[in-house]
Each structure stands twice: as C-alpha cells, then as structure tokens.
C-alpha cells in the first residue's frame, strides 16, 4: 500500500459556514455532518473535515488546491461575484491580481476563519537538489 493523505481537520469558527464557503468556491459538495465535522471531499479523495473551535484557538493555515484551467475560471468568477478579496501573492501585497507562476495561473484568498486558500493551475516546480 502506498502512503496517501486521507483527511485533515480544518479549524473554523463555524464548521458549516467554512465548509460551504470552500465548497462553493471550488465547485465541490459539502458532505453529511459526521460528529463535530462537516466534510468536503476533493477529487483526489482527500477530505477536509471542518471543525468548529474557539476563534482564539484557530492557528491560521495554508491550503493550496490544484485545479484545471476551466475550474480556475469558474472559481475565479465565483470569487469575483462574491466580492472576495484576492491576491497574486501569499503576503497580500498584490490585491486584485492573479499570478502566472510555473506556466499557469494562481491566486490567494482567505476563508471565513482566516486560513489562506490558494488555487493554482500548475503544480509548483522546484529545482532538484
């Protein structure tokens, strides 16, 4: 058996709000609530299990999603229609812009809990060491 990431817990102020937010942007489905979790499954079978915790306990994380060009266009349109601030860079210095790294397109935006979300159309390429 090969090792694969199966699921991760995403802390949120409101698990349903955060799950629905991300699912809407990415064009995914929100799963049935399971205990304290509201799941969102990705196409590579990784589940993001959103869990409500006290806001002061949330440690901001970064989540990057590899999407097709068509999925990027659709997600970008949903981001713009919702008036969500987006950036070309992870530090928020290039608002209202997208990047063209590694021959693709990408952008960053925040979810309701403050996590940094990223959508990219090409995986990052790093020089071999």
Number of beta strands = 7
Number of helices: 2
The proportion of residues in beta strands is: 25-35%
Question: How many angstroms separate the termini?
Answer: 27 Å
Cα radius of gyration in angstroms: 15 Å
Which overall shape is indicated by the principal axes computed on the Cα atoms?
A: globular
Element-level helix/strand string: EHEEEHEEE
Alpha-beta classification: alpha/beta
User: What about the largest sheet?
Assistant: 4 strands, mixed
Task: Tell me the strand order in the biggest sheet.
Answer: 4-7-6-5
**Mean pLDDT reading:** 96
- Percent helix, as a range, is 10-25%
The low-pLDDT segments are none
Provide a quick synopsis of the model.
The chain has helices at 15-26, 69-81, and strands at residues 7-12, 37-41, 47-52, 62-66, 86-87, 106-110, 116-120.
């Amino acid at each position: 058996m090969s090792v694969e990431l199966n699921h991760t817990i995403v802390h949120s102020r409101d698990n349903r709000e955060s799950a629905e937010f991300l699912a809407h942007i990415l064009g995914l489905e929100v799963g049935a609530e399971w205990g304290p979790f509201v799941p969102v499954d990705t196409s590579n079978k990784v589940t993001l299990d959103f869990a409500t915790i006290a806001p002061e306990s949330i440690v901001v994380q970064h989540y990057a999603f590899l999407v097709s060009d068509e999925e990027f266009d659709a997600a970008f349109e949903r981001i713009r229609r919702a008036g969500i601030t987006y950036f070309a860079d992870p530090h928020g210095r290039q608002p209202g812009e997208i990047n063209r790294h590694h021959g693709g397109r990408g952008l960053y935006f925040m979810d309701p809990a403050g996590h940094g979300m990223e959508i990219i159309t090409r995986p990052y390429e790093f020089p071999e060491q």
